[in-house]
Amino acid sequence: MTRFDLTGKTAIVTGAGRGIGKALALGLADTGANVAVVARTEADLQETVQAIEQKGGKAIPITADLTEAGAAEKVVGQTVEAWGSLHILINNAGMNLRKKAHEVTEEDWDRVVDLNLKASFFMCQAAGKIMCEQNYGRIVNIASVAGVVAMRTGVAYGSSKAGVIQMTRVLALEWSKFGVNINAIAPWYFRTPLTETLLKDEAYVQEILQRTPSGRIGDVEDLVGPAIFLSSDAAAYITGQTISVDGGMSIYGF
Ligand SMILES: NC(=O)C1=CN([C@@H]2O[C@H](COP(=O)(O)OP(=O)(O)OC[C@H]3O[C@@H](n4cnc5c(N)ncnc54)[C@H](OP(=O)(O)O)[C@@H]3O)[C@@H](O)[C@H]2O)C=CC1
Ligand SMILES: C[C@H](O)[C@@H]1OC(=O)[C@H](O)[C@@H]1O
Fold it and tell me: Is this complex scored with an ipTM above 0.90?
């Protein structure tokens, strides 16, 4: 068994009905983990579960709106009921409302921050209770380069993702003594349903590429390796960190 192997581990991946979360769920299952996949749309989850099972993996769908009170306990409880354990949490579910600051309403702000930051925290809290008690856990929070540098894709979004990065550090500080490592991944642009409309605009894509030393838009497969690494024993001494998976965007000064 290599240090990257997740055989015998149980994982939760939120937002796994499509996009990045679906790729991460497939990747963790390929690496041996049993995966609970979470989203609001049951049909999407069934497709993810079938894709995992067709490759010989094990997965269960958990339909939940993570912005609802008690959703985190429900998701964690159903996962432990199914497999008797929980080792890995990938907080991936997220959304954006792209508005200029003058246009942001309280409802807009709450919708973005409730999912991206608040729901991620309460998933960490629910999973962390089990992980700290068993003295083992790996949590990977999907942030964004919008939480690392200023982007014009929305102040609520960027603030929520910066909050995810700081939440990652604080929980790492509190839980590392229990063997629970928490890290974040900050993606630049990837082709998913979340960015589909934006990336149809060729001029916008050219602007992205001009700021990307690697010269290409990310492929969701580029995120699977970093997520597996941070979920594995290979990252046993790494916690509180944020890895920008961005083709060099966040270091591009001039
Ligand atoms: N794509 C990109 O370029 C980038 C994405 N990110 C981040 O990566 C993560 C995934 O993004 P991406 O895959 O592009 O997004 P998508 O919109 O493609 O997928 C989002 C997933 O989250 C689920 N979801 C949305 N709202 C809820 C909710 N209230 N409760 C439970 N699940 C929910 C969706 O399923 P359903 O609607 O059925 O609930 C879906 O499965 C997000 O956190 C995003 O901020 C960061 C940087 C760049
Ligand atoms: C890189 C950002 O996270 C990206 O910006 C957007 O407008 C999308 O919402 C993506 O999340």
Answer: yes
Torsions phi, psi for 182 (to 5 deg):
-125, 125
Q: Domain total for the chain?
A: 1
CA 89 to chain centre: 9
54: CA distance to ligand 2 center in Å?
Answer: 31
Residue 24, CA atoms < 13 Å, CB-side half-sphere: 32
For the annotated catalytic residues, the residue numbers are 157
In angstroms, what is the span from residue 44 Cα to ligand 1's centroid?
12
**Protein residue whose Cα sits closest to atom 4 of ligand 2:** 189
Which pTM value belongs to this model?
A: 0.98
Q: What is the span of the domain harbouring residue 146?
A: 2-244
Q: What are phi and psi of 27, to 5 degrees?
A: -65, -45
Name which of 178, 172, 188 is nearest 230 in CA terms: 172
> Is ligand 2 within 6 A of the CB of residue 144?
yes
Asked whether residue 102 is domain-assigned, the answer is yes
The predicted-structure confidence for 224-248, as pLDDT tens digits, reads as follows 999 999 999 999 999 999 999 999 9
In a domain, 249, yes or no: no
